[in-house]
User: Fold this.
Amino acid sequence: MIVLSESIEQIEQSASARENKFMTEAAELLGCKVYYILRDFERCGNAENALWHIPKFAKDTAGIWVGYISELERYEAIYQAALAKGIKLLNTPLEHRTALEFDLFYPHLKELTRESVIITSTNECIQAGKLLGYPVFLKGAVQSQKQQGWESCVTNNQEELMRLTAWLLKLKYGSRGKVIVRKLVKLRHQRLAPNGFPMGREFRCFIYNRQILKYGYYWDGKDDLSQLSKDEEKQVLNLAILAAERLRVPYVAIDIGQLESGEWIAIEIADAQFAGVCQIPALELWNKLKDIYRNPV
Assistant:
């Protein structure tokens, strides 16, 4: 298995950078061949130059990209350049988009998640607010801004909705020109993050070809809610597999959360190549992925 890693020393020491470094080191420990690539094309010009140092393989070899969520055009370019080298990333560009962009995966998962409306301008805020009622949760098509706190995600009236929508639309990588307005639901929780964001009872599941590889609690730190009973585990994993079956994306990360009522719902979907491992041991995840790829069901 080939790993294309953006974990290079020049990258800033952010949480994402540390995660990429950790995942890359784990892949190397398990014998994956790692090739380092630059984070963008500013220094190398294009995808072919970014992969110039990678040899052409005689037969198609599985590839995984460990890095930062980039523009769709960059993913497509790297995918095609890698394919020309005999390396096939686990998700095609369309599968990558389907897992990453909310407006593409939402139609498949409407019954499994919160009611949502996709908007592309502040002019659509009035109707979105009327449909869902306040308060509402906001995120870009690709990412939310919950790391910046509750006020960066939740609005209580039309004025706040318009202001936050305008801000999100300016975030090129996080929104891709779309804002998702979601019906606010209350997740079961015991803790608040330092920024005041409720740390809901959520579990991230890594799935390859509709088979669970590993799952783990979403939040760091000790939490009584991180332990699942056998029945709860069955509910979480069954819901994650159902979502994966509907999406038909080979390598996907699915977050499952529990409402205060006890019901489990799908919270977020991501291309697993770019998803944080949360409390999942990286070595165990790589081991499972390598085993299931070598011995497909």
About this structure: The two ends are 18 Å apart (CA to CA). The first helix runs from residue 15 to 29. The CA atoms of residues 75 and 193 lie 32 Å apart.
